[in-house]
Design goal:
By secondary structure, the protein is mainly alpha-helical. The protein has one domain. The structure holds zinc ion (ZN). The site of zinc ion has 9 residues, from loops.
Length: 120
């Protein structure tokens, strides 16, 4: 499990753990449009198995975003007197907007790893 999380964080191919999925070196510090390799440069594993394959990654992205929103709320509400202060909402919005670039790449990586053993 920890090895899989490491491979996801390192942007490695789920099949051979050598090739890169995204053209960027690290997807944690990338604020540009997604640039993915179509095939793994090492083992020729096809990342997008069919048209619309990454549609399901949208649900992973949603789960990540909700989780980050909850964690941000739990951290931010420590600094306010009321349990639910409305000033927390812009803080949550800001965090979610900053992390959206990471989330979209991370959700695709998780999606690829979830279905790496299925072939069409
Ligand atoms: Zn590979």
């Amino acid at each position: 499990m920890m090895n899989t999380i490491k491979q996801i964080a390192k942007n490695k191919c789920p099949n051979c753990n050598n090739g890169k999925v995204f053209k960027e070196g690290s997807f944690f510090l990338s604020f540009s449009f997604i640039k993915m390799h179509e095939y793994c440069s090492h083992c020729k594993f096809k990342f997008e198995k069919e048209p619309g394959y990454f549609f399901g990654a949208m649900f992973v992205n949603y789960a990540l975003t909700v989780g980050e929103g909850i964690v941000t709320y739990l951290v931010a509400h420590q600094f306010f007197d009321k349990t639910f202060d409305l000033r927390i909402i812009p803080i949550i919005s800001f965090v979610i907007m900053v992390l959206c670039f990471v989330n979209i790449r991370l959700s695709r990586m998780i999606w690829i790893y979830m279905f790496k053993n299925y072939s069409l």
